[in-house]
Design goal:
Strand content: 25-35%
Radius of gyration: 19 Å
Structural class: alpha+beta
Number of strands: 15
Shape: globular
CATH topology of the largest domain: Tumour Suppressor Smad4
Oligomer: single chain
Helix content: 25-40%
Number of domains: 2
CATH architecture of the largest domain: Sandwich
Number of helices: 8
CATH class of the largest domain: Mainly Beta
Mean pLDDT: 93
């Protein structure tokens, strides 16, 4: 199998190329034909992904986190060549949603026997995304994490940033529309999800599935900051959706507008501002995953 391995040089605090080199030796020992490339920056990541598609390799494996994956999506969407993932990011939420190992060497060994899984992507402001489009407090946190790459990985960094930024957070006014629901008012969060979690395991939309042809919208309406503090821990098991300020809605598209532009982030990357329409792109991405990987999501219900 001819495999192009694209490594984010900044992932794992700069250790991703060393980790990937060790894993390439393992894969070559299996009989794979691996070529490793270390693109410098998002534009080069997209360029090298495009080149891999042109070269008709059998698979492209991305070494990094959700943001690194994000920049490879435009060239792999609706292509026959599958994407594999070697998780080396701070959040690794797509890997977690897929039920794959979140440690790179375990993830590498799991690919000894593989199959293809097809998942949906989202589209916002002309950009593909695999995870969640954030608007509100989660965008403020995503912007902080984007500008401060040294914050701790996993949920700890995101959770700590949320606690710090909540104190000066101003609740934005948004109008949110779906196929069969509309709301206009002040919100804490409006999260449009293809993937159930963000921030290293915070299950903001726990019923979201990667391959059902829908986006799951979670809206948290304005409440006291003390209650937000109480709700935050429940994000780790999805318990927040039972609160009266929270509602979940499933739709093929979501429209966001506001009196003034609000920043939007997807997969932890900036993707423009409101006004925006977010759409699902059914079956847009083929993934190389270990044989036996299961499709699953928590079975939870919400107030509406």
């Amino acid at each position: 199998m001819r495999v192009r391995i694209l490594v984010n040089p900044k992932a794992k605090k700069g250790r991703a190329p060393i980790i990937a080199s060790s894993i390439v030796r393992i894969w070559n020992g299996w009989g794979w034909d691996c070529q490793m490339v270390v693109p410098q920056g998002p534009a080069r990541m997209r360029e090298e992904t495009r080149k891999a598609v042109t070269d008709k390799v059998d698979a492209v494996i991305v070494v990094g986190g959700d943001g690194t994956i994000h920049h490879a999506l435009p060239e792999l969407a609706f292509q026959d060549i599958p994407m594999g993932i070697l998780p080396c990011g701070r959040g690794n939420d797509l890997v977690r949603a897929l039920g794959l190992p979140t440690r790179p060497f375990a993830a590498a060994q799991a690919l000894r026997t593989t199959t293809i899984r097809t998942i949906d992507l989202g589209m916002v402001n002309g950009r593909f995304f695999c995870g969640i489009v954030t608007c509100g407090l989660d965008s403020v946190v995503a912007d902080f994490a984007y500008r401060h790459r040294s914050i701790p990985g996993g949920w700890i960094g995101y959770f700590a940033a949320t606690l710090i930024l909540l104190a000066r957070f101003s609740f934005p006014t948004v109008t949110v529309k779906t196929e069969d629901w509309e709301f206009s008012g002040s919100v804490v969060v409006s999260a449009t999800a293809n993937c159930p979690a963000y921030g290293g395991g915070m299950w903001i939309a726990p019923t979201a599935l990667l391959d059902d042809g829908f986006l799951d919208l979670c809206v948290v309406r304005k409440t006291s900051k003390w209650k937000i503090l109480r709700l935050l821990p429940s994000l780790f098991w999805g318990g927040h959706i039972r609160e009266p300020e929270v509602s979940l809605h499933r739709s093929r598209w979501v429209s966001l507008s506001s009196p003034f532009p609000l920043p939007l982030f997807a997969d932890g990357e900036p993707v423009g501002t409101t006004t925006a329409t977010i759409r699902v792109e059914r079956g847009a991405l083929r993934l190389l995953v270990p044989t036996g990987t299961k499709r699953s999501a928590p079975s939870l219900t919400s107030s509406s």
